[in-house]
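Bug report

Summary: structure tokens for Aspartyl/glutamyl-tRNA(Asn/Gln) amidotransferase subunit C differ between web form and batch submission.
Environment: batch mode, default settings.
Steps: 1) Submit the sequence below via batch. 2) Compare with the web form result.

Sequence submitted:
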Amino acid sequence: MGNVISKEKVMHVAELARLHITDEEAEKLTDELKSIIEHAQLLNELDTSDVEPTTHVLKLTNVMRKDEPKEWITQEEAVKNAPDQKDGQFRVPSILSE
């Protein structure tokens, strides 16, 4: 597979992204992108037939408690120590100006 990255394509993508890059920066980015793609193509040569697909590099598992119903406080108990409450709800100073 030939190199699909050209200076013109780099300049075009930079223009689409509203980035101003110089010719020198475009040349450098073109070389860097070509190098990245070449490295990625090397990975295609690896035999991964015996490798199980992964979604994460570490074997992580969630540790969760059993979901069981339990007693909880009532709405009245939740607001009883609030400095300001009305109709069973906490009242707080407004942060939006009118």
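Above is the batch result. After comparison, the two runs are identical; trailing whitespace caused the diff. The beta strands are 85-86, 89-90. The longest helix spans residues 23-43.
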